[in-house]
Write a structure and sequence with these properties.
This protein is of the alpha+beta class. It is built from three helices and six strands. It has a four-stranded antiparallel β-sheet. A two-stranded antiparallel ribbon has the order 3-4. The model has no long low-confidence stretch (mean pLDDT 88).
Length: 129
């Protein structure tokens, strides 16, 4: 059975805004040529026999936040919001990949290949469909 694994990239936040509004959306060139370590990772996943099924970089934490929903039917009315970045941590989730493989040991090895300035958390995705 093929399983899907999510790789969460934990690292110091990055200046995503510097990559917006430039030629092709990335300073100095097209997006596919700007992040060579991530392209090399994607190529390695294929060479290892797994399949990349999703992934994205997340913008700087200042473009998001955290919420603690209220209880029950008061989820919105009693929600407590806070803006990012979060002072209690030096790292954020800056992006993720979704990879399919039927080999749990391979999933672990793939985690070590994900480019990061911090660490990678990998988790098997719970099958809901």
């Amino acid at each position: 059975m093929t399983d899907t694994y999510m790789y969460l990239i934990h690292e110091p936040d990055w200046d995503s805004d510097a990559f917006l509004g430039e030629r092709d959306g990335v300073p100095g060139g097209a997006p596919e040529s700007n992040f060579p370590a991530h392209q090399a990772f994607q190529d390695a996943v294929v060479r290892l026999g797994a399949r990349l099924v999703g992934g994205a970089a997340l913008q700087n934490a200042r473009h998001g936040g955290q919420v603690t929903p209220g209880a029950g039917d008061r989820a919105l009315d009693d929600a407590v919001y806070s803006d990012g970045p979060y002072p209690d941590t030096s790292e954020v989730v800056s992006g993720y990949y979704l990879v399919e493989t039927d080999d749990e040991e391979l999933a672990k090895r793939i985690a070590a290949l994900v480019p990061t300035g911090g660490h990678i958390e990998w988790r098997k995705v719970f099958p809901i469909s």
